[in-house]
């Protein structure tokens, strides 16, 4: 799994999004391998996320704090992953970060180092948390007209580790949701390319009953795994 952590400066919003539905498509390329997943994300305030994966195989993914449950209805099997830290998946992390006042900066342990403004462009620089300080130099975020446009994560050597660009923003109240996120992860052995597309965003509408009351069916054995 490809994890992307996105951090951005805090913004105060008057509007509260109680729930949301969004269709997504995520494509990942690495060496000679390429995979695509498609499905729907369902969000319920404050931090409940449910993903319905339609392709390539049907599965449900339930995210709640430090716990992830993955359920395969066609095989009647489920796995419960328990982590000591908040779990983040790239295909919904950007979507959730837009709705957070500080974009997860405090949760991730990053600290604002400096910022620059020029016309309608804001560039912020962040020091990494102590646990990453030996390998990560810092994070740079660029905003234009309050919309996140790009992010860069650098190694201590000054080389780029991660670079993302954000396009096709969808406005809802004071929120600006990027609907196209392209990310390049540079590793010693390979370059990993990820592209996420969001569409059909619906906010503060009633969620289907199967989403509100989602549970693993009785009789399905859930295997617990420490992550």
What structural keywords apply?
single chain, 227 residues, mainly beta, outer membrane lipoprotein receptor (LolB), chain A, 14-stranded mixed β-sheet, 3 helices, 7% helix, globular
Detailed description of the structure:
This protein has 227 residues and is mainly beta. The protein has a single domain, classed as Lipoprotein localisation LolA/LolB/LppX (outer membrane lipoprotein receptor (LolB), chain A), CATH 2.50.20.10. The protein contains three helices and 14 strands. A 14-stranded mixed beta sheet has the order 7-8-9-10-11-12-13-1-2-3-4-5-6-14, covered by helices on one side. It is globular and about 55 Å long.
Give a short summary of the structure.
The protein has 227 residues and is mainly beta. It is 7% helix and 56% strand.
Write the layout of secondary structure elements.
Elements lengths: L18 E12 L2 E12 L3 E8 L3 E6 L2 E6 L4 E6 L7 H9 L6 H4 L2 E8 L2 E7 L8 E9 L2 E9 L4 E13 L2 E12 L4 E13 L5 H4 L9 E5 L1
Parallel strand pairs: 6-14
Antiparallel strand pairs: 1-2, 1-13, 2-3, 3-4, 4-5, 5-6, 7-8, 8-9, 9-10, 10-11, 11-12, 12-13
Note the main sheet: 14 strands, mixed
CATH homology superfamily name: Lipoprotein localisation LolA/LolB/LppX
Low-confidence stretches: 1-13
Order of SSEs, N→C?
EEEEEEHHEEEEEEEHE
Say what the CATH topology is: outer membrane lipoprotein receptor (LolB), chain A
| Mean pLDDT score | 85
Biggest sheet: strands side by side, in what order?
7-8-9-10-11-12-13-1-2-3-4-5-6-14
Silhouette = globular
Give the strand tally. 14
Tally of separate helices? 3
Decide which structural class fits the backbone: mainly beta
Radius of gyration: 18 Å
Strand content: over 45%
Q: Tally the structural domains.
A: 1
Please write the CATH class name. Answer: Mainly Beta
CATH architecture: Clam
